[in-house]
Amino acid sequence: MHDLTFFRNHLDHIRERLSARGFTLDAGNFRDLDASRRAALTEAEKLKALRNSESAEIAKLRKQGADTGARQRTVREIGEKIARLDEEAAQLEGKFRELLASIPNVPHESVPAGRGPENNLEVRRWGRPRDFDFQPKAHWDLGPELNVLDLERAAKITGARFAVYVDLGAKLERALINFMLDVHTREHGYTEVLPPFLINSASLFGTGQLPKFAADLFKIKGSDFWLAPTAEVPVTNLFRDETLDSDRLPVKLCAYTPCFRSEAGSYGRDVRGIIRQHQFQKVELVKFTRADQSYDELESLTANAEAILRKLGIPYRTVVLCTGDMGFSSAKTYDIEVWLPGLNEYKEISSCSNFEAFQARRAGIRHTSGKGKPEFVHTLNGSGLAVGRTWVAVIENYQQKDGTVLIPNELQPYLGAEVISKRGSLH
Question: Does domain 26-101 have CATH number 1.10.287.40?
Fold first, then answer.
């Protein structure tokens, strides 16, 4: 959600910035709706003041024994007009808030202009893709061959875009979750939380998924519950409608959750393997900061996510998304893309975003030092990391010529093993 006063006073500049991300703001409609809403409110307030003065005059006349019938009829008519104006203002207010809620965040000035992924800007690269002396396999071949990934049984149980992890495959998934949480809490200063996986509509509105992206979500029929698409939603909403102590900021939280997405707009994309699933695991990093901290905190949050791949020894690159490729609520986003030799390309494994006050304004999250008016916090989040894609990165980058997979040193204590080799299946 936007700051209405700032939006109103800088409408042309905001329209220009939004056009850079492919959004057309109808400034004329905005001004007309805003003017109609304000006119109804102003007229209603004038009539309420008139009604109050008339009521006071009627009281005086009654004490004098004068006839007040005509004035009372006038007051009733004023009251009827006020009721109609209040209803009109409420309807206009609803339309206006709906309009504001549908407008994406304004890109930060440092975000490169562009229409799509081809215009994203690489800012750094770490690690060199391994030179294999054999043809590396994709995880959808290697996983089933090692009996650690079963996609056919997952499809039987549920459908496409689901997976069953088996034996060391399941343990690797669990190990990655614990490893990520341990690094972020012990080394990066985050506090771990375990939120509900079912969330309500108010929470999804607060972080910007509703109302615009309902088709991307799974709704529980007959309730106001939705399956969490990411831990960003429940963790950010921990402080919905609260005021934080400025001295506590930044607040740094991390959480593991399963994530559920319909992938409504991804037909035909990443259909093989587990790159794009309806259900997947993720460790999320969330920060609440002051405005003057938020861009420094975005850099450190991104570095915290990158640290996981560095510790695992997996090559990656980091790109800043252009204006046309950012998410609805973001003011600036870095994507971390991991190298997958089986696919022979880099794939996004984390998006790290600064939402500035956009989410906080929708969710009512403020901070104050007690010396002035409360201000909206800035919220940030990023995957630290997407666990399934990290699983893929380990399997593909550490595969050996004999078909086994070496386990990175950092993960060996979690699995109690050094190598994944073919063992018994579910049979």
Answer: yes
- Rounded to whole angstroms, the Cα distance separating 199 from 281 reads 17
Residues facing residue 289 across a β-bridge: 378
The answer to whether residue 61 scores a pLDDT higher than 90 is no
Domain 117-420 homologous superfamily, CATH: Bira Bifunctional Protein; Domain 2 (3.30.930.10)
pLDDT of 187-205, one tens digit each?
999 999 999 999 999 999 9
The answer to whether the beta carbons of residues 208 and 332 sit under 8 Å apart is no
Instruction: Give CA–CA dist 420/414, Å, rounded.
Output: 13
The structure's pTM equals: 0.90
Using H for helix, E for strand and C for coil, what is the string for 215-281? HHCCECCCCCEEECCCCHHHHHHHHCCCEEEHHHCCEEEEEEEEEECCCCCCCCCCCCCCCCCCEEE
d(CA 406, CA 125): 24
- Lookup result for tokens 């109808």: 26
Residue that has been written with the tokens 């006020």 in this structure: 82
In this predicted structure, the answer to whether residue 45 has a pLDDT above a threshold of 80 is yes
